[in-house]
Each structure stands twice: as structure tokens, then as C-alpha cells.
User: Fold Molybdopterin molybdenumtransferase from Solicola gregarius.
Amino acid sequence: MAPASGHATEGMLSVEDHLRNVLERLGPLQPYDQSLLEAFDLPVCEDIESPIDLPQFTNSAMDGYAVRHADVEGATDDRPAVLPVVGESAAGSATSYALSPGSAIKIMTGAPVPSGADTVIPVEATDGGDGQVAVYEDRRRGAHIRPAAEDVRVGDLVLEEGAILGAREIGLLASLGRSHIRARPRPRVVVMSTGSELREPGQEVGADTIYDGNSYMLAAAARAAGAISYRVGIVPDSPDDFAAALSDQLVRADLVVTSGGVSMGDYDVVKETLSRLGTVDFVQIAMQPGKPQGFGFVGDERTPILTLPGNPVSAYVSFEVFGVPALRRMMGRLPYRRPLVQAMLAEDIASPDGKRQYVRAHFEVNHRGAKVTPVGGSGSHLIGGLAGANALIVVDEDETALNMGDTANVLVLDQNF
Ligand SMILES: Nc1nc2c(c(=O)[nH]1)N[C@H]1C(S)=C(S)[C@@H](COP(=O)(O)OP(=O)(O)OC[C@H]3O[C@@H](n4cnc5c(N)ncnc54)[C@H](O)[C@@H]3O)O[C@H]1N2
Ligand code: MOO
Assistant:
């Protein structure tokens, strides 16, 4: 075998090239009418114009009495305005009253204001009477009346295509009478871990077996990115088992994510099995961690598949760098990638030339600004250190060192974007 020669990153693709390739080959999923809550946190795929006014009808902001302002003007404790109570308007009661001069109608919060009334006197400013009411305090004309259409008018553009459906947007749509909304489906991600050394949490592990942390981590990371995820039980390092498990899963997958079996070993089952199909490219990326990667399509439906390396930190970082943008592309959610933020570096960092390094770190904002501190070691197996991090420092390909006090680019994990 020829000895390795030339630059350490010769033959490797850059992170940017691989990510571009993934994003170019994926398209957004087809939108459909989803029930409102299903569409939570998804971008809406239509402009929404209001079909109704909000408020729909002029209504009371207080429990009290609907009156004509002229009939109560100047009322005080000593000289109350006494009016006959000629009816009642309660929220949800369809009765429509007209108020004749010199009378009052009892009214509840949210109930339609009778025509002829221009002011609501809260019950606290009266004796609360039924047959007749003594009003002890004046209010300005129009007090406690919520006019029809003061908030939203029929035909107003209330949400633009692409807006994210959060609690407030969903509340508004329901208030406009929308039960369904056009949005892309949440991608269904099937996560598979390969490795004959793996065991399920809860089972016994022996001297040469380990727990399958990756499939749990990646299934959780997919959910955090807004997807639905299904975790498949451990698949041993056998091409037949892997091919069978994969083909069983395709029916429920918009994206398959595997971990393990993509490097140079004798039992690298993912690479071995999928390379034969010719539809998945296995590449080496100039990044650390996360060097061996694969992306392509499998099955009759050409389901996209991301094959991530098995080292836990490599799998996590790879999912953050390639998986999260892939899912956001499928959801039609911009921006595809987590924005970088700048922070003051609290320690020196060395980084390999020609590779982009993702350094586990702790990010905080204090009174002096944003600060980031590397945590744990750099080994790709250090899941304990990974769990202690809340950020990744991104050291560019052409940087071999960053010094304490430098401004570093940081991916702050777990933040909505
Ligand atoms: N000769 C070479 N060896 C390796 C290279 C290389 O270029 N030449 N690359 C190294 C790098 S970098 C990485 S990353 C790993 C990737 O390996 P695989 O994707 O083939 O993964 P495995 O060999 O199956 O496992 C690697 C490591 O991770 C542990 N693992 C795997 N799956 C899980 C899981 N579900 N939960 C927890 N831990 C898991 C596994 O036990 C191994 O320790 O290859 C290097 N080797
Ligand atoms: O790329 Mo591996 O991901 O360095 O451990």
C-alpha cells in the first residue's frame, strides 16, 4: 500500500462543499393542510388574510351596565343616576337589544353592546341592581367598549408565507376560525445505530460491549430540530441484517440517519452495504470531529440517508452541522444553519491546519459580554464532556491557533433559530 503523502487533508471535501451538496440534493417536503397544533413551530406555506373582523362585534370589556353617556354624566355617590334595567346581554347570548334613552342594560364582559349604548359602567361603580340601577360614578364616553374590527379587519394580511407558527400565531389563527393550516409535514427521521458491540440501555454490558448512546442522542437531536424521530433497535455489523432493517424502515422515513460503520474497519457495515448500491457517496470531510460521512438516497422512493460516524461526539457534531440544516431544508425553514455568534475566548486553542474544528465549549453571557470556554477533551469518544457543553467553538480551516481574549465564532446549541 502506498504511504500517505501530501497534505493531511488531501482528497477531503470541505464542510461547506459537503453541506452544499446535501442541501442541493434535498428538497422541501410537500405542504398539506395540517390541524393547527400539529403545525406548531413549522413555517406556514400560505399568506393568511383574515376572513373576519376582530373583535367580530362591538362588545363590553367589563361586567356592568350598558348606558348612554348622557344619562349618567355627572353621577356621584350623593347624586346617583338611577335608571331602569330593561334587559341583559351576556357573552354567547344571541339576544340583540336596542337601548332606549334613560335606561340601562346589564352586560357581561365580551357580550355585544346594545345599539344605542355608548358607554359601559362597571358593576363596582353601581349598586348592582336588577330592576333598576343606581350609577355612582361617571365614565368617559365610550369607556369599556371594545369596537368591532379595532384589532384585525376582514382582508388584513395577518401572516405571511414563511412565518413560524408559534403560540401567538396559532392563537390568532384559531381566533380567526382556522382549524387547519397549510404547512410542510414535520420530517420523519428514522435513526439506526449499527455495531455488534452495542447493547440497549437497561440490558447487561460485558467486557467488550457498550451501551447504544448514539441512537438515543440522535433521535433526541432530531426532535429538538423539529422532526418526528423513530429510533430503531441496534443493528449488528452484518450487511444482510442492516439491509433488511433499512428496507423495513423506509416506509416511515423522510430521512434515515445512521451512526457507525462508515470508516475503514473490517466491519464497517453501513459503508459496505450502501456502497454497493451506488446511490450513497462516502466522503472524508476536512473537519474534526466528523471526518467520515456519507449522504445519498436509498429505496424505491429515493429516501435520503445521512450516514454519520459512530464516535459519539462525531455523530453529534455531524448531526448539528449536516443533519439540522438538512431537516430545516425539508421543513422549508430558514435559515438552514444555526447562526454563529461571537464570544471572547477564555483559553487558548490549537487546531489542525486545513480542517474545521468544532470545539466543545461552555458559552455564557455576563455583564462583560459573551464568553466561551472550552470544556472536556478533544477525543471523539468523550460523551461525558459533550454533555457538559452548551456550545461549539468553530475554528476555521486556515486557523491553527486561537488565543485567550480572541473573538471566537460559536454555535450556541439548544437555542431556537
Ligand atoms: N484506520 C482508520 N480508522 C479510523 C478512521 C480512519 O480514518 N482510519 N477514522 C476514525 C474516525 S475519525 C472516526 S469518527 C471513526 C468512525 O468510525 P465508524 O463510523 O466506522 O464507527 P464505528 O467504528 O462503528 O465506531 C466508532 C466508535 O464509536 C463507538 N460507537 C459506535 N456506535 C455507537 C453507539 N451507537 N453508541 C455509542 N458508541 C458508539 C464504537 O464503539 C467505536 O468506539 O473511525 C475512526 N477510525
Ligand atoms: O472524525 Mo472522527 O469524527 O475525528 O472522531
About this structure: The chain is about 20% helix and 30% strand. The longest strand covers residues 356-366. Residues 193, 195, 197-198, 210, 212-215, 259-265, 268, 289, 291-292, 309-312, 314, 380-381 surround LQZAQKY5 (ligand 1) (CB under 6 Å). The radius of gyration is 32 Å.
